[in-house]
Specification:
alpha+beta; Immunoglobulin-like; globular
């Protein structure tokens, strides 16, 4: 009888000890879980990097919307950065690029401007998202400014899209001895409207290849040899992972050949037209005989 009582008491002690250990380990485990809780990311303050003058937060915007402001040179890459317009649910309504209005190779603020068309929103409000151009692709280098806006009740889906054509001004492309450099420094942006479609890259390139230099651009001292007789777009292929856009052209009369200066400017123009779209990071022309001196 005494042995039975002894074993009973011993079992009670063991069970009580196990319960105490379980409670202590459970409390410790929860404490460790709390210590490793990941806090939500807080927005990065970019007020010292970019300032938007128009539109202001909460402003009612029309379609298309003109966006202007100032950004540090580090916000740009090759003089531009991408902008998106989304509704409150994050659906993409329109996108385009902001262009520096002066040299972006500086640490100072540079004035920028963009005109972006967008499709009819399903919500009454949304955001304009200005993203730094990050050629490295590294997430820790990404920065953005999100401006809350209200869509005008009269804003309907745009039937036109404002895109950028690039013409040449030799006056901007000279060395100290007034020699023509035949470089990208001479490229000048010219706004052009095309129909609003689901294939903006293709439509923009085709329109640039087929549109004569506007009289206003010629009067401003700009030049362009496009359109070239027998040169037309055959196909486009965009690798979304790398951003490589392959442009295949037909050149029946070898109009893309010639002197190094001439073919270089032609190539720079067409590359700039393609790279105005944020998803295009690099341009390749086919066949390889195109734009050869």
């Amino acid at each position: 009888m005494k042995k039975t009582i002894f074993y009973f008491i011993l079992c009670l002690i063991i069970v009580s000890g196990l319960i105490i250990l379980f409670v202590k380990f459970n409390v410790l485990f929860k404490s460790q879980e709390t210590n490793f809780t990941v806090e939500p990311n807080t927005p990065v303050d970019v007020s010292d990097l970019i300032i938007v003058d128009r539109p202001q937060a909460g402003e009612i915007i029309e379609n298309p919307v003109t966006i202007s402001g100032r950004a540090r040179g580090s916000w740009f890459f090759e003089g531009s950065f991408p902008i998106k317009i989304v509704d409150v649910s994050g659906e993409l309504l329109g996108e385009g690029i902001a262009e520096a209005q002066s040299s972006w190779m500086t640490n100072d603020f540079v004035v920028f401007r963009a005109a972006i068309s967008f499709k009819s929103p399903a919500t009454s409000s949304g955001f304009i998202i200005l993203h730094n151009d990050n050629p490295s692709g590294l997430p820790d280098k990404d920065k953005e400014l999100k401006i809350p806006i209200v869509f005008s009740s009269t804003s309907s889906e745009s039937t036109v899209r404002t895109v950028k054509f690039f013409y040449y001004d030799s006056r901007l492309d000279q060395d100290d001895a007034s020699n023509i450099l035949c470089s990208q420094r001479g490229l000048v942006v010219w706004d052009h409207d095309i129909p609003f479609t689901a294939t903006p890259i293709k439509d923009t390139i085709e329109s640039f290849l087929n549109t004569p230099l506007p009289e206003e651009a010629a009067a401003a001292g700009l030049s362009s040899e496009f359109p070239l007789s027998g040169v037309s777009l055959e196909s486009l292929n965009l690798d979304k992972d790398s951003g490589l856009l392959t442009i295949r052209l037909s050149d029946k009369y070898n109009q893309t050949g010639g002197g190094a200066c001439r073919v270089g400017i032609l190539k720079f123009q067409l590359e700039a037209v393609a790279k105005q779209f944020p998803e295009v990071k690099e341009v390749k022309f086919e066949p390889e005989t195109l734009f050869q001196p």
